[in-house]
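User: Could you go from structure to sequence for me? I need the amino acid at each position, not a summary. Structure tokens:
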């Protein structure tokens, strides 16, 4: 299996990650494998099906359980503390309903990371995925949204959504020595993140009184995010990074229940990957 010596960076974004799933499915069809991959939140979830080489799986999981209140619902939040039911997402689906290929994933020859936020420090940690039966908890940590998820314990530390500390881990990939990077964003080109509202700050203070580092990360999140977008645009203009980002073809809510909208976004990602494949390969082979 030949791997491209480059970084693959997958932004989160909840259900907007259907766009990422389309791109990754095209990459799998072309047997385009990156030796360093970094997934955040939904990006980490879709990265799982990439390293297990299961095209179509990420889309199926995104749309097949939308009407199941055990998957994502206020009932799940009330009864379990998780809006996205952790047992269903990280046990029932991969082990019973849409089987995950653990054996293939564990043989992955590259390095794959799920990005999570350390509650104590408020800093990003890049949790390497080596043995997926255990490391699926790292993916859960990366995708556990603040306020609507329980804290996730992994190897003695508590974590939540990686997007709070590092939504687009391009700088991490650069530090790891990747001179070429492919970034998959889930927002259109003109998007910039706004500061956290006063109400959300108050909720964070009430929910996480023991974790000032986490609250600081949330307050600074828009600054870090927007600076990363500025870096991406500069490097893209210099031909040093290759970026995929969706156009405003369909409005997707963070928790979207319309499977048609999700399929459209998935197809947009697949189409964008196909249309830009030659340009992407030219960039990677320079």
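Assistant: Here is the amino acid at each position, in order:
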């Amino acid at each position: 299996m030949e791997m491209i010596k480059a970084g693959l960076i997958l932004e989160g974004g909840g259900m907007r990650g259907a766009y990422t799933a389309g791109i990754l499915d095209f990459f799998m069809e072309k047997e385009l494998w990156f030796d360093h991959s970094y997934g955040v939140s939904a990006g980490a979830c879709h990265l799982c099906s990439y390293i297990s080489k299961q095209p179509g799986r990420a889309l199926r999981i995104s749309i097949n359980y939308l009407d199941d209140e055990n998957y994502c619902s206020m009932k799940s939040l009330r009864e379990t503390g998780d809006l996205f039911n952790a047992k269903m997402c990280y046990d029932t689906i991969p082990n019973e309903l849409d089987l995950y290929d653990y054996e293939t994933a564990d043989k992955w020859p590259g390095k794959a990371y799920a990005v999570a936020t350390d509650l104590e420090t408020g800093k990003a940690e890049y949790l390497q995925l080596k043995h997926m039966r255990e490391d699926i908890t790292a993916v859960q940590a990366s995708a556990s949204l603040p306020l609507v998820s329980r804290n996730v314990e992994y190897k003695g530390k508590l974590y939540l959504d990686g997007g709070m500390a590092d939504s687009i881990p391009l700088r991490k990939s650069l530090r790891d020595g990747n001179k070429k990077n492919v970034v998959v964003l889930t927002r259109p080109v003109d998007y910039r993140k706004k500061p956290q509202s006063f109400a959300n700050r108050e909720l964070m203070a009430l929910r996480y009184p023991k974790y000032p580092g986490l609250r600081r990360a949330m307050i600074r999140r828009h600054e870090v995010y927007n600076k990363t977008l500025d870096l991406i645009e500069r490097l893209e203009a210099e031909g040093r990074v290759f970026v995929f980002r969706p156009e405003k073809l369909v409005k997707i809510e963070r928790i979207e229940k319309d499977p048609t909208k999700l399929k459209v976004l998935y197809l947009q990602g697949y189409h964008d990957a196909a249309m830009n494949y030659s340009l992407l390969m030219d960039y990677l082979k320079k």
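One structural detail worth keeping in mind: Residues 122 and 214 are 4 Å apart (CA to CA).
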